[in-house]
Design brief:
By secondary structure, this protein is an alpha+beta fold. Helix content is about 20%, strand content about 25%. The chain has four domains: about 120 residues, Immunoglobulins (Immunoglobulin-like, Sandwich); about 270 residues, Alpha-Beta Barrel (TIM Barrel), CATH 3.20.20; about 55 residues, Oligo-1,6-glucosidase, Domain 2 (Oligo-1,6-glucosidase, domain 2); about 80 residues, Golgi alpha-mannosidase II (Immunoglobulin-like).
Length: about 575
């Protein structure tokens, strides 16, 4: 037994409260090394005849990645306190593992066991429940629709008449969104994520000038109130983008520092190395990346903190928004985010807080900061298999298993899963314009756990490379829209809403990729019903033998609504190249 590979810590994704009564305990072992794991657990104060009285339960293997196996036990401690340890067996030897290390036999000293001191309700990670059933639609306001030409910026171009550049404008606004709510309802989405809408210099608005004012090119606050009401009347949530890591160059406090230097009362609002300020050849102040027009804010400064928390409070109180997406969230101090959460959750407890973090984000997901992060490891894995064909289905399953075990289950349920955004090439471009591969990507996205997001226009087959190419004007000419792709996504959304197992109910399990090297297959099951999603990522026909005894059972194809009764022991599913099926039994 390779004990060096065995890992557990009594915190984060390895030991966590799933509900106010239930705990999940996980352990990691070397891949294909340990055959059985038993959890020993009990209240540290419960003794009988001078001995600690503990119970035992077998742990379940929940997944395997390229290096490790992952095991879980779900328990309900009677008195909310817990000490626990593990007995590991590889069919030749048995080993006990506790907080003090390894031994041949379970320790008789309760202090040698891991400790979960008390299951405090306040420590349970609770993201808003509505998020689990939300399908998001990301809108880049300047490029979605022009509903009011009177507020077009000077020099605005006719809609879609030119390719997007970092500096051109087409007049997209909030009125355009209001006019097209019926389109979004028809697609089936019930959440809109807006990139920044506050007053800014650029077309992307990530260089804020005034955090308390709408950009005049998008409309006024009355228009925004009408937008919120229209969305809420159609059961659509609204999430805004908060750019608190940095301001824009023309943010008045930064302009004051430019003018007055060391004498500016705002000099401590930024991270300035020396005076006077300079932008060339490199800025002598911290910025987003190395962009001199986005100076980094000092969120440890009390005045900055109070200003930004006022902003966070204002848009929730005055306009009843449903979520904040936090730009460059990983570069801001944790204490700021803790206070941010307290402020907005006090006003609206079920407000969704989403951080933009592209890497392992456990430090932000302990219940005191964010509800979720943008799941870019999910994105990368999905594109590598179906679009770029740079990994095998086996590697895909291993990678995705690793992604799922990065966080507790209740965090995965509200993870923001995306396959394209204003920061990435369009899905069709990633797929080299292969619509069948794009369909597979959306099929996986909309049948997997988490809360999925569609970038505007991807549903009708819009193309575009890296920023600014991915920021084209929305194509409203129906003759130029890919209606087959639209219908495909619309159908998947409809099925997801009707079948809770295709969203965040039940238990997800990947089928061993060795069953067919060109397939990705996973099930969602609640013990009574099971849904199987099967995707052929290859250019060849395949014949997939279902590894279940379904004789006598009725099987329904959820995508086509066709049913058939299984009357043989083995059932083969034939899939064409780049095809899929969704079966319920």
């Amino acid at each position: 037994m390779q004990i060096e590979a065995i890992y557990h810590r009594p915190k984060d994704n390895y030991a966590y409260a799933c509900t106010k009564d239930d705990l999940h305990i996980r352990i990691r072992t070397k891949k294909n090394d340990v055959t059985r794991v038993t959890l020993l657990f009990g209240d540290p104060y419960q003794w009988e005849d001078g001995k600690w009285a503990y119970k035992s339960t077998p742990m379940t293997l929940t997944g395997t990645d390229s290096l490790f196996d992952y095991w879980i036990a779900e328990i309900t401690p009677e008195f909310k306190r817990l000490r626990y340890g593990f007995v590991l067996n590889d069919d030749t030897i048995e080993t006990f593992f506790g907080e003090k290390g390894f031994s041949q036999e379970p320790s008789s000293d309760v202090a040698d066991y891991f400790c979960f001191p008390f299951l405090n309700t306040a420590d349970v990670f609770l993201a808003p429940q509505w998020v689990k059933n939300t399908i998001w639609y990301q809108i880049f306001p300047e490029r979605f629709a022009n509903g009011d030409s009177s507020n077009d910026p000077d020099g605005s171009l006719a809609w879609g008449s030119n390719e997007p550049t970092p500096n051109n404008f087409f007049g997209g606004d909030l009125e355009g969104v209001i006019e097209n709510i019926s389109y979004l309802k028809d697609l089936g989405v019930n959440g809109i994520y807006f990139t920044p809408i506050f007053k800014a210099f650029s077309n992307h608005k990530y260089d804020t000038i005034d955090y308390l004012e709408l950009d005049p090119a998008f409309g006024d606050k009355e228009t925004f109130k009408r937008l919120i009401k229209t969305c809420h009347d159609h059961d659509i949530k609204v999430m805004l983008d908060a750019v608190f890591n940095h301001s824009g160059f023309y943010f008045p406090p930064f302009q004051d520092v430019l003018e007055h230097g060391q004498n500016s009362k705002y000099k401590d609002w930024f991270h300035i190395h020396d005076f006077p300020l300079k932008t060339e050849p490199a800025p002598n102040y911290d910025t987003f990346a190395f962009t001199p027009f986005m100076p980094k804010l000092n969120t440890e400064n009390n005045e900055v903190k109070e200003y930004l928390l006022t902003v966070a409070r204002y848009w929730v109180e005055e306009f009843d928004i449903d979520g904040w997406r936090l730009d460059v969230a990983n570069e801001i101090d944790h204490q700021f985010w803790r206070e941010f959460r307290q402020v907005v959750k006090t006003i609206k407890p079920d407000l969704y807080i989403l951080g933009e973090i592209w890497h392992d984000s456990m430090p932000w997901l302990r219940g005191d900061q964010f509800d979720a992060v943008m799941n870019y490891p999910f994105t990368t894995n999905l594109l590598n298999l179906f679009a770029k064909q740079s990994i095998s289905s086996k590697q895909f399953v291993e990678n995705m298993t690793n992604v799922l075990h990065m966080y507790p289950k209740n965090i995965n349920d509200t993870a923001f899963n995306l396959v394209g955004s204003h920061d990435t090439p369009r899905v069709l471009n990633e797929c080299n314009q292969d619509e069948n591969r794009a369909r597979l990507i959306f099929t996986f996205l909309l049948t997997f756990i988490g809360t999925p997001c569609i970038y505007y226009g991807d549903e009708i087959g819009m193309s575009g490379g890296q920023d600014p190419g991915c920021r084209k004007c929305m194509e409203w000419d129906v003759k130029k829209q890919n209606k087959d792709l639209f219908t495909h996504i619309q159908t998947l959304i409809s099925i997801r809403k009707k079948e809770p197992l295709l969203a965040n109910e039940g238990t997800l399990s990947f089928l061993p990729p060795e069953l067919h090297s060109n397939c990705v297959a996973f099930t969602k099951s609640d013990g009574k019903q099971t849904i199987l999603v099967l995707l052929n990522s290859s250019e060849q026909d395949i014949n997939y033998t279902l590894p279940f005894n379904l004789k006598g059972k009725t099987i329904k194809n959820l995508f086509t609504s066709k049913e058939f009764a299984a009357d043989i022991d083995e059932i083969d599913v034939k899939l064409k190249p780049l095809d899929f099926t969704i079966l319920k039994f």
